[in-house]
Write a structure and sequence with these properties.
The chain has 273 residues and is α+β, with helices and mostly antiparallel strands. The protein has 8 helices and 6 strands. It has a 4-stranded mixed β-sheet with strand order 1-2-4-3. The longest helix is centred in the middle third of the chain and has 62 residues. The protein is rod-shaped. The chain starts with 6 loop residues before the first strand and ends with a helix.
C-alpha cells in the first residue's frame, strides 16, 4: 500500500537526571529534505539520525527536533582528596602543639577548594543511547501516520480511476455510434477515410493500460509518487489525442471530465511518498 508524506511522531527520552522530547514532522516534497534542531554540542547525532531515517523514508520535507526538557543546571562536587589533606595537617598540629581539635564539617566546607560548583553540560556520547531509543519510538509513530494517509489517498485515487474507466467506455461507445451513423449516409471510400481519422482504439488501449499500472502502484510497498505523476502525464497526453480525433460534444465533455480527474490524481501523487 502506498505511503503518504504527512506525518508526526513524538517520544520522550531520559538518561540519569536529563529528560527530553523528540519530535518528527513531515510534509510533502519532491525529494528528501531534512532539517535538524539539536541541543548545543550534539551535532554528532545528525548523521546517525539521518541513517535511521533513510531506512524508512525516501521523500518529504522533514523536521527533527531533539529538546532537553529537564536537567540539573549545576552540580556540587566535594574535593575529598583535599579534605584528607586538611585533616592530616589538623591532626599533626593537634599532636605537635597539644591542641584540642574542634574541626567540624561546617568548618571543612568553608575551607578553600573543598566545595566546587560546576555547570552541567550535556555530552552527546552520553545522551545518544537514550536519544536513539527515543527516536526509534517516534519514528514508528511517524511512519504509522504516513501509512494511514497512504490508505486514504489510495481510496480516493481508486475512485477516480474507476470513474475514468467509465468515461473511456462511454467514449468507446460514442466512437462506434459515430461510425455507424457515418456509414449509413456516406460512400464506402468516404467511410474508410473517416474511420481512419477517428480511430481511437490505440489511445483507449494505452489509457486502459495506464489505469491498470496506476492500480498496481497503489498496492506497492515501495515509494511510487514520482511514477504515479509520470503515468498521469501520459494519461493527459492520450486524453488530448482523444479530444482532437473525436470532434463531438459528448466526447468533449468526457475529455474535460478525464482531464479533471487526471489533474486531481497528479495533485494526490504529490502527497504520495
Amino acid at each position: 500500500m502506498i505511503t503518504g508524506m504527512t506525518g508526526f511522531g513524538t517520544a520522550p527520552f531520559s538518561t540519569g537526571r536529563i529528560k527530553g522530547l523528540i519530535e518528527i514532522k513531515s510534509v510533502n516534497h519532491r525529494y528528501l529534505d531534512t532539517a535538524f534542531y539539536l541541543p548545543s554540542g550534539c551535532g554528532m547525532m545528525e548523521n546517525k539520525i539521518r541513517e535511521m531515517l533513510a531506512k524508512m523514508v525516501s521523500r518529504g520535507r522533514i523536521t527533527i527536533s531533539v529538546r532537553i526538557t529537564e536537567k540539573p543546571n549545576q552540580e556540587v562536587f566535594f574535593n575529598e582528596d583535599l579534605i584528607e589533606e586538611y585533616l592530616h595537617h589538623a591532626r599533626s598540629m593537634e599532636k605537635k602543639y597539644k591542641l584540642s581539635n574542634n574541626l567540624t564539617l561546617a568548618d571543612l566546607i568553608r575551607m578553600p577548594g573543598i566545595v566546587d560548583v560546576k555547570e552541567v553540560f550535556v555530552e552527546a556520547d552520553v545522551l545518544w543511547p537514550a536519544v536513539e531509543k527515543g527516536f526509534a519510538a517516534a519514528l514508528k509513530g511517524f511512519k504509522s501516520m504516513r501509512q494511514r494517509e497512504g490508505k486514504s489517498l489510495a481510496v480516493d485515487i481508486e475512485d477516480k480511476l474507476k470513474r475514468m474507466s467509465q468515461k473511456l467506455k462511454a467514449i468507446e461507445k460514442r466512437h462506434d455510434d459515430l461510425l455507424k451513423a457515418f456509414r449509413k449516409n456516406n460512400k464506402p471510400e468516404e467511410f474508410a477515410s473517416y474511420q481512419k481519422s477517428i480511430d481511437v482504439n490505440e489511445e483507449i488501449s494505452r489509457f486502459t493500460h495506464y489505469i491498470d499500472e496506476m492500480r498496481t502502484l497503489l498496492k506497492s510497498v515501495i515509494p511510487t509518487g514520482k511514477k504515479m505523476d509520470f503515468i498521469a502525464q501520459e494519461m493527459q497526453r492520450e486524453t488530448n489525442t482523444l479530444g482532437s480525433k473525436l470532434q463531438d460534444q459528448m466526447v468533449s465533455n468526457a475529455v474535460i471530465a478525464l482531464k479533471s480527474k487526471i489533474e486531481k490524481i497528479r495533485e494526490q501523487a504529490n502527497n504520495v511518498e
